[in-house]
């Protein structure tokens, strides 16, 4: 029996603005946000809480994006095809952008805190995920 294929990652091709420069305790790029070493953990926690809230909200965005016609008749199908599904998909796309931007911001904050580059932090996160049984 073949292993089931993993679900496609909706965030993979999602394009979001770059995270502004972040400096923590004098390390990082100037010209953006600056945090002391004492306050950065609290800032990271706030962004992680936002990410958790966005994850909880995903089910609502998916419900709107996948709304079904209440009846099998022209008016219902017109409503779904000409407005509801398009609007719902737009909501879901924007939701994915918020999730990806939030993930990128957490990575950038963590990298600045650890005094490493974002690429090094992403590699570290991937290794941690593999060591914890993830992919």
Your description of this structure?
- This protein is mainly alpha-helical and 135 residues long.
- The protein has one domain.
- It is built from three helices and three strands; from the N terminus they run E-E-E-H-H-H.
- It has helices at 40-65, 74-113, 118-131, and strands at 22-24, 27-28, 33-35.
- A hairpin with a 2-residue loop joins strand 1 (22-24) and strand 2 (27-28).
- The chain is elongated, with a radius of gyration of 20 Å.
Helix content range of the residues, please?
A: 55-70%
Give a count of the beta strands, DSSP E runs of length 2 or more. 3
Order of helices and strands: EEEHHH
Low-confidence stretches: none
Strand order across the largest sheet = 2-1-3
Distance between the termini: 21 Å
Number of domains: 1
Total DSSP helices: 3
Sketch the major β-sheet: 3 strands, mixed
Secondary structure elements and pairings:
Blueprint lengths: L21 E3 L2 E2 L4 E3 L4 H26 L8 H40 L4 H14 L4
Parallel strand pairs: 1-3
Antiparallel strand pairs: 1-2
Short description:
The protein is mostly helical and 135 residues long. It contains three helices and three strands; from the N terminus they run E-E-E-H-H-H. Helices cover 59% and strands 6% of the residues.
Q: Key terms for this structure?
A:
single chain, 3 strands, 135 residues, mainly alpha, elongated, three-stranded mixed sheet, 59% helix
């Amino acid at each position: 029996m073949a292993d089931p294929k993993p679900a496609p990652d909706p965030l993979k091709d999602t394009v979001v603005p770059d995270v502004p420069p972040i400096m923590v305790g004098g390390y990082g790029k100037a010209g953006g946000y600056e945090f002391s070493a004492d306050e950065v953990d609290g800032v990271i926690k706030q962004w992680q809480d936002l990410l958790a809230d966005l994850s909880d909200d995903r089910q609502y965005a998916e419900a709107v994006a996948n709304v079904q016609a209440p009846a099998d008749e022209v008016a219902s199908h017109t409503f779904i095809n000409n407005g509801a599904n398009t609007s719902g998909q737009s909501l879901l796309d924007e939701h994915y952008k918020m999730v990806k931007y939030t993930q990128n911001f957490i990575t950038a904050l963590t990298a600045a805190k650890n005094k490493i580059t974002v690429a090094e932090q992403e590699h570290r996160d991937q290794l941690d995920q593999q060591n914890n049984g993830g992919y």
